[in-house]
Each structure stands twice: as structure tokens, then as C-alpha cells.
């Protein structure tokens, strides 16, 4: 993949990361409010651990898996491994990457892996 295409995907991933990080921050503010409304009189009474636990609980599994998928994809760009199937080493089609910029496998390997593991929830951007 040439540098221009790579940059295109990098920008898309960064935009997604920003979007999801904003969601996470929003959840964090909600979590604090809920923890405070939850019988605790004021924020000073909340231990840091309470808040952390609440945030963890509120931050949906789906949301945090989105974020880690995106970070992984950005790391692959940095390391020059982006767009290469992690299973067979063949290039992943750009059409597939357009549809799913976080794709780790080409369509063949993805199907193979899903058949072995059972369907897995794949984040779609
Ligand atoms: Zn493959």
C-alpha cells in the first residue's frame, strides 16, 4: 500500500478513535454523577476506587473493544504491518479495509477463523 493510502486509513482510524474517546469521557462524567447520586453525599466521600469501578462498569465492553481495535490498527500502521493479513501474510483488499479499517485478516482467513471459533462480534466502524 502506498503512503497516501496508508495516510488515508490512518486519518480514518484517528477520527474513529476521537469519536469513541469522546464517548468514553462522556460515560466517565455520567459514572461520577451516578456514583454520587448512589447514596454518597458528596464527591469528597468517594474513594478513587469507587469511581474507577463505576467507570469500568459503565464503559461498555463494546466501546472499550472498539478503542483497543483502533489502537491496534494504528500500531500496525506505525510498524508497517497494516493491511497485511495476520494469518497468511497476504495483503487485505482495500475495499475490505474501507469497510472495516481495523481488519486484521483477509476475508478468507476471517471466515476460516470465525468457522473455528464461532462467530465473534467484529466492531464495524
Ligand atoms: Zn489471510
UniProtKB/TrEMBL annotation:
PROSITE patterns: ZF_DKSA_2
Pfam families: zf-dskA_traR (PF01258)
A GO molecular function held by the record: zinc ion binding
InterPro entries with a match to the protein in the record: DnaK_N, Znf_DskA_TraR
Zinc finger intervals, dksA C4-type: 85-109
Zinc finger DksA/TraR C4-type domain: residues covered: 80-114
Entry keywords, A to Z: Metal-binding, Zinc, Zinc-finger
Protein name as catalogued: Transcriptional regulator, TraR/DksA family
Species in which this protein is naturally found: Pyrinomonas methylaliphatogenes
Amino acid at each position: 500500500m502506498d503512503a497516501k493510502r496508508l495516510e488515508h486509513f490512518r486519518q480514518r482510524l484517528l477520527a474513529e478513535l476521537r469519536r469513541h474517546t469522546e464517548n468514553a469521557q462522556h460515560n466517565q462524567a455520567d459514572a461520577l454523577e451516578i456514583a454520587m447520586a448512589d447514596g454518597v453525599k458528596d464527591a469528597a466521600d468517594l474513594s478513587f476506587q469507587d469511581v474507577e469501578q463505576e467507570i469500568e462498569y459503565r464503559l461498555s465492553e463494546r466501546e472499550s473493544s472498539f478503542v483497543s481495535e483502533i489502537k491496534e490498527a494504528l500500531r500496525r500502521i506505525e510498524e508497517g504491518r497494516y493491511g497485511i493479513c495476520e494469518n497468511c501474510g497476504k495483503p487485505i483488499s482495500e475495499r475490505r479495509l474501507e469497510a472495516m479499517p481495523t481488519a486484521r485478516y483477509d476475508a478468507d482467513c476471517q471466515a476460516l477463523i470465525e468457522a473455528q471459533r464461532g462467530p465473534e462480534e467484529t466492531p464495524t466502524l
